[in-house]
Amino acid sequence: xxxxxxxxxxxxxxxxxxxxxxxxxxxxxxxxxxxxxxxxxxxxxxxxxxxxxxxxxxxxxxxxxxxxxxxxxxxxxxxxxxxxxxxxxxxxxxxxxxxxxxxxxxxxxxxxxxxxxxxxxxxxxxxxxxxxxxxxxxxxxxxxxxxxxxxxxxxxxxxxxxxxxxxxxxxxxxxxxxxxxxxxxxxxxxxxxxxxxxxxxxxxxxxxxxxxxxxxxxxxxxxxxxxxxxxxxxxxxxxxxxxxxxxxxxxxxxxxxxxxxxxxxxxxxxxxxxxxxxxxxxxxxxxxxxxxxxxxxxxxxxxxxxxxxxxxxxxxxxxxxxxxxxxxxxxxxxxxxxxxxxxxxxxxxxxxxxxxxxxxxxxxxxxxxxxxxxxxxxxxxxxxxxxxxxxxxxxxxxxxxxxxxxxxxxxxxxxxxxxxxxxxxxxxxxxxxxxxxxxxxxxxxxxxxxxxxxxxxxxxxxxxxxxxxxxxxxxxxxxxxxxxxxxxxxxxxxxxxxxxxxxxxxxxxxxxxxxxxxxxxxxxxxxxxxxxxxxxxxxxxxxxxxxxxxxxxxxxxxxxxxxxxxxxxxxxxxxxxxxxxxxxxxxxxxxxxxxxxxxxxxxxxxxxxxxxxxxxxxxxxxxxxxxxxxxxxxxxxxxxxxxxxxxxxxxxxxxxxxxxxxxxxxxxxxxxxxxxxxxxxxxxxxxxxxxxxxxxxxxxxxxxx
Length: 705
Ligand code: HDE
What we know:
The chain is of the alpha/beta class. Helices cover about 30% and strands about 15% of the residues.
């Protein structure tokens, strides 16, 4: 710091450094103006009117110890802007993380659609995608049990196409008119303002128990799908059927699916809860770090295509968003991939201000009559007007199309364009270059016939609420079924009203009698409540292994994290070997030690740590290695953070590599031995075990329903 300069410009007000001093010399020296003298590179700090500010540390006062003057327009401009910094958070999906990237088509759908984004093979269409939780506020943690929203804005040459999906292929309700009720039931209870970001409370389950159509979704949200390990490891679904329309006007139904290159992976419920404490930004940080490291997350993009005639044969109605079309019934056709390769420059202007609307489609893509989708076509534009405050939200850089666009819409709040000329209507003869409609290139709705009587009537074909819930449950592995049953016991145990618990268990009976028994036993019921009268018979559907998570895990360590616990006296050679094997297998490796400065290894060298033990628990890793000397192990046996580190790794079914010295810590933590606890010198065994969870161990560490 240049003392001469700081002395040249002492802080006004009280003497520097004394109590009440407004700004010590050093702070001033760090401010914009003085640095200009030092480096000459910083632009002048100005007001929003371009007036150069002479002092950004002191407001204008009548005298050094006197009142602040209303005249201080610089203070007022700054504070007023600050007061208005927040915009209303999204009523749902408030907590989200986004990235830029591109979509690349590998298979043309030319015979089905005129949408160039789906016909021009090899073209890279820019995208902006936001992944979110649903129930929590924008400051809530990343890992509650919740559905993940997965919205993608494709900036195509024919306009923006927004695919606003979720990581679960079905939804709670069949009709948009129930959405406000659903969301009010799941959000914080209005009299008490809690719980935040949780379904485990009375109002949610009360509403659900009165909404049989939600039972299929209940199976999904109680499964580990709602506990993703990473946003890079979730699937995405457009949920609704859409229509593809080709040049001849022929219509084909389509469902959109996207599957992560890293495979599906979830956490264990206890782990997800602990991650929320250890790192509330776990998913956001993971995505940020992966993109920063050049490990660009990628998804395979697929469609399910089917005709009206085929749909007529399905034992369910594809317009009902509580139903899915199993991959085994209509196979997925892979047509492309998309990649996230750039983190936003500014969280607010991009991630917060991005406005997705399912109504944003391009020529060749049209909506179906799904009543949930139809309601969404209204809701999203309306919500953007409320959140962003202006019908000109499309002018914000993140929302603006990247193809030419223009019309005769004018004015409004925050108009940022500069429309030229005399003509603001169409048609006109007064202007040669004002924009006009284009019948040949423009959007045409599919010309499908509509008949029938108007009315508030739910179609008969929407009446079966249990068959697919049953199909989902029975398609899971035994481990996953146990997690679903246990999640239901956990959630319903948080419900105070016995009649709500009973009503929910009643609904489980048509899904599967064994599931109902397990949950009833877990809740301590002495008798089974009566099963509800189903509106339609429950029928057996073929098992669909594609609905599992375990079946969709990939045999890889790519994108996974390994934590190595060390202390003074640890064996550097073993640490190095394990770290190399893990990084060679694609994992990231972090060294955890009692002090962040590192540990003095057995050979006297220092190894710096990436994380301090108390702040870097094993829940942040997919597998751990414990490399300790006898003395190091003994010292850590007195540390609850070290005990928790190994006990949680074991309890969360993770592979543990341990050397002879480290065994003492495992013993102190009461950690047993099994196939997932391997000798640290056998790095191949460790890598193989680290690629999965030790499912067989679970029955030895917790009671599942
Ligand atoms: Fe949304 N939903 N939703 N939703 N939704 C919103 O729009 C709505 C539904 C989804 O990252 C809101 O901009 C209604 C299904 C995502 O910005 C709002 C209904 C699916 C996002 C809204 C649904 C979704 C939203 C709130 C029932 C999966 C976050 C803020 C008819 C296919 C997008 C906003 C982002 C956001 C309404 C049901 C996905 C209020 C009325 C089904 C991924 O407009």
